[in-house]
Amino acid sequence: MPRDFLKRYNEKRNFGITAEPIGQAEKQTKTNLHFVIQLHEATRTHYDFRLEWHGVMKSWAVIKGPSFDPADKRLAVRTGDHPLDYNEFEGVIPDGQYGAGPVMIWDEGIWIPEDNPDKMEKKGHITFKIEGSRMKGQWHLVRMRTPDKRENWLLIKCKDDFALNKTKNADFLKRENTSIVTGRTMVDIRKAGTGKTTCHKKYPLKVS
Ligand code: MN
């Protein structure tokens, strides 16, 4: 394990209660770097945007979700690293637990950094291509200089073939409101409750 990125992640959770995976950093994958976006109805609804790097998922909470309109910059608050296994988590975090509420896998796929991610992160400007089912094309994550104890970034769509104008972008998140893996809505996920359910495209639904 290179650095204990996931110490805080593990400290915040009681794995006897929540079905979320125990954090364990994995070896840096050399080829495809994964990304996931999880819609999370916690105290405040947000989209958790996670990019694989150094064997963990670097995370940002995008409050309003991604916008395909390049003029519409979305606040992305940096949050703690998550384990790679978290990409497969869809379900309900039980009441009283950190981040209690339903989580939906809204999109997943791979991301292609334009340059070395460490270098770009240090600079506060990460440019990347994303190949998901819903997320496409080139994007920027730009760190704001505002003094705040939180690290505030902006998620911005680049002007490319996948960009949408204000009108076309307006209903995108309302229209695309189901799990990309299971096809479930947030209501379905809530109903299924807090049981240990992991799911992935490659495998049939596993319930234990
Ligand atoms: Mn969250």
List the defining traits of the structure above.
208 residues; mainly beta; eight-stranded antiparallel β-barrel; two-stranded antiparallel ribbon; 5 helices; 11 strands; 13% helix; globular; disordered C terminus; binds manganese (II) ion
Question: How would you characterize this protein structure?
Answer:
- The chain is mainly beta and 208 residues long.
- The protein has one domain (31-190).
- The protein is 13% helix and 39% strand.
- It has helices at 7-11, 117-123, 166-170, 172-175, 186-192; strands at 33-41, 45-53, 56-62, 74-83, 91-93, 101-113, 125-132, 136-143, 152-157, 197-200, 203-207.
- The strands form two sheets. Strands 1-2-3-4-9-8-7-6 form an eight-stranded antiparallel beta barrel. Strands 10-11 form a two-stranded antiparallel ribbon.
- β8 and β9 form a beta hairpin.
- Residues 40, 42, 46, 48, 61, 99 line the site of manganese (II) ion.
